[in-house]
Amino acid sequence: MTRSSLDRGRRFPQEERLRTDQEFVEVVRKGERVGTVHFAVYRDARGGERRQVGISAGKRAGKSVVRNRMKRLLREFYRLNKEAFPQGTRTAIVVRKAPENPMLDTVRSELLPALIKRWGEWNKG
After folding, report:
1. Domain 19-116 belongs to what architecture?
2. What pTM value is reported for the model?
């Protein structure tokens, strides 16, 4: 079974993740912020070719099943909307409070308009 180049481009490889707590905290402290009802998104510009994304869902976001579902949905949102995360930036997404019935469409309809409003149309990266 072979994967198309489109499928390979939509992966979420390790090099695109914020790997350490120190990296995540640095983005949250130094980055620009946009907030929605259920999420807070922080972004800083690092330069270079890499884009990195970190996802966090603390206990106030719900029980472990809900938190893990939210993290899966946010990883999928990133995978399908990489163009909203320009090259050379680090982004931290924090789940404040999980939506009532979390689904990918719910996440997309809340996050995409906020990202576009704050950082512009797809940030040509």
Report:
1. 2-Layer Sandwich (3.30)
2. 0.87
